[in-house]
Amino acid sequence: MNFSKEWDKLYRENAHMSIWPWSELVSYVMRYARPNKADFRVLELGCGAGANIPFFRNLKVDYFAVEGSSSIVKLLHDKYPDIKNNIIAADFTKEIPFSGQFDLIVDRTSVTHNSTAAIINCLKLVHDKLIHGGKYIGIGWFSTKHSGYRDGSQAEDPNTRINIEKGPFVGVGRAHFSDKKHLLDLFSDFTIEIMEYKSAQRVIPKDDYLSASWNLVAKKE
């Protein structure tokens, strides 16, 4: 069963098959949530084609992942048979099907492909699954200043867009966009330790395209 039909289709078409660890996620983990014990448990929400798995395996942590595409999960099971029981196809906005709690939960531009209601539910699950003092690292949460925010059409709520016909959001289904206040509201049960905004304006070709997003570190007290 596929919980993310759009992403499952993209993976089956060999699109978005990123295999190198995302540098910002690596940097944030090492700066703000470096593993500090032998049984350090990490959960990744939306691991995609497994770009970050080699990084976490190199850190020798106990790695787990919940991914919405069953076809990409099958590929990961074939690639990493020793941890296949730790990589599950499920909807992380409705359940995190692992027992126990985690020291660190991460996502790189995965949670933000859902509606506001789904994200709120996901973050409640994240909060429950973190140990006290555990951290959540979110990389690449789309900003309302992103060009994609003005494209497409509104979905379930004003922050969620669908049917975006150009740029990186083509074919991905929902894309969720946040400003500072919205993020603070979403993470009201956490202590936000780091929140950083970044943007890049395309100059050539001159099409007024702006990429804008948020990175954050949130702690469960």
Structural notes for this entry:
- The structure is a single chain.
- With 221 residues, the protein is an alpha/beta fold.
- The chain has a single domain (5-219), classed as Vaccinia Virus protein VP39 (Rossmann fold), CATH 3.40.50.150.
- It is 25% helix and 28% strand.
- It has 6 helices and 10 strands.
- The chain has helices at residues 5-12, 23-32, 53-58, 70-79, 116-129, 180-186; strands at 41-45, 62-67, 87-89, 102-108, 130-142, 153-154, 160-162, 175-176, 191-201, 210-219.
- The strands form 2 sheets. The protein has a 7-stranded mixed β-sheet with strand order 3-2-1-4-5-10-9. A 3-stranded antiparallel β-sheet has the order 6-7-8, with no helix packed on it.
- The chain is globular, with a radius of gyration of 17 Å.
- The termini are far apart.
- 38% of the residues are buried.
- The mean pLDDT is 92.
- Which overall shape is indicated by the principal axes computed on the Cα atoms? globular
The helix fraction, in percent, is 10-25%
Please, what is the average pLDDT? 92
Query: How many domain units?
Result: 1
Number of strands: 10
Q: Strand order, biggest sheet?
A: 3-2-1-4-5-10-9
- Highest CATH level, the class: Alpha Beta
Quick tags:
221 residues, alpha/beta, Rossmann fold, 7-stranded mixed β-sheet, 6 helices, 10 strands
What would a concise description of this structure say?
With 221 residues, this protein is α/β, with parallel strands linked by helices. The protein has 6 helices and 10 strands; from the N terminus they run ααβαβαββαββββαββ. It has a single domain, classed as Vaccinia Virus protein VP39 (Rossmann fold), CATH 3.40.50.
